[in-house]
Amino acid sequence: MERPPEWPAGGVGARFKASFVFVVVLGLACLPVGFGFAATGRSGALKYAFLLAALFLLTAQFSLIARMRPHHRISDITITSYDGHAATEVRYSGAQFALLSALVACLAALSALATWDFARADDDVPAAPVAAALTGLAAVFFVSFFVLAALGRLRRGRIVLSQQGIHQEGRTFTSFLPWESFAGAKASYNGTPEILVVAYANAHWERRQLTRVWKLDKLPPVPMIEINPTALAVDPTLLYHLVRFYLEEPSARAELGTDASLQRVRSAAFK
User: Fold this and answer.
1) DSSP letters spanning 124-188
2) Cβ(185)–Cβ(177) under 8 Å?
3) Bridge-partner residues for 165, per DSSP?
4) 10-39 burial: b if 16+ Cβ within 10 Å, else e
């Protein structure tokens, strides 16, 4: 498969490597600092040191996975059922979503612990009630991530190709356009690779933003399926050719939702 010319060559640049090492060093440095505070009698600082270390290291791991794109698993492209129809599903990265959840959990724990400590602070701590209120609000905000996830309004995400059209379940939105609505597909680059499946302006576009509290992704301003491959579990080039093949070959759409579509993906038979 040929990589779209609009996308720069892959790999990790020197700037990313430097940033990655810097964040990892910050994370590791939190541990001796925390033990140093504990040695001076401020043992309460140790819990913040561990949480900050985890926060920095998780951030580094998240950026590494998004950049390096580890090889997807077989289950990341599979057969599913959508609205009662068999379809072929391409999943968003489960590792990225797990790391994102862990990052938010660290932030929620930091906020909750700070709220508890400020609430118990002595009267000589300036503005402790105000600080407790602010950190408490932050804790509620971060906990809302998991409430929305439990309600299904925030999720891993997936792209579903059915014989009817393309369904996109982003992390915080849903979008559907039928095949006949599309004018074409193209690759673009806006800091990260993108796949734009552009529809006609008068297309019947079904879409819904599921939450406005955590807008991890958002709907495009005009009818289209806008895919950021770095958020998915599969190789961007593979996904680009997969979507473009079924857009340009209407007769082949009958195999969507069957093992034939999976075999096509495994053999990269897009010509």
Assistant:
1) TSTTHHHHHHHHHHHHHHHHHHHHHHHTTSS---EEEEESSEEEEE-SSEEEEEEGGGEEEEEEE
2) no
3) 178
4) eeeeeeeeeebeebbebbeebeeebeebee
Looking up tokens 């929305």 gives 148
- Tokens standing for residue 93: 């990265």
Residue 115 · residue 139 · CB < 8 Å: yes
In contact, 1 and 13? CB cutoff 8 Å = no
Alpha-helix runs per DSSP H in the chain = 14-39, 45-68, 94-119, 128-150, 236-248, 259-267
Question: How many Å is the Cα radius of gyration of the chain?
Answer: 23
Cα angle, residue 97 at apex, residues 176 and 30 outer, rounded to 5°: 150
Query: Pairing state of beta strands 206-209 and 85-91?
Result: unpaired
H or E element, residue 3: none
41-68: per-residue pLDDT in tens?
A: 887 889 999 999 999 999 999 988 887 7
For residue 70, what is the DSSP state? P
Q: Residues 145-158, buried b or exposed e (16+ Cβ, 10 A)?
A: beebbeeebbbbbb
Task: Say how far apart CA 16 and CA 239 lie, in whole Å.
Answer: 24
The string of pLDDT tens digits covering residues 117-153 is: 988 877 676 788 899 999 999 999 999 999 999 999 9
